[in-house]
User: Fold this.
Amino acid sequence: ITVRLEGIITVLGGPEHRTRYANGDLVGYVATVYRASVISGVPTPDHDEVSAVRWFGREEVKDLRLSVLARGLFAFLDWL
Assistant:
């Protein structure tokens, strides 16, 4: 899809955005959250890294299985 970026909402990182993979690797994430509008296109899975795509409303997010990073992002946005 093509989007129009309308500004940065937040940048999140730090100890609460670190995780350890099963192989022992320790990683830290820094996520930049943008406000954006879809200009054109339809989200489509590539069936390699993404098997399904869909939009979720705020009321649906709390029922999703989320990674620690995603849960932190949505909590910051007060969606959880």
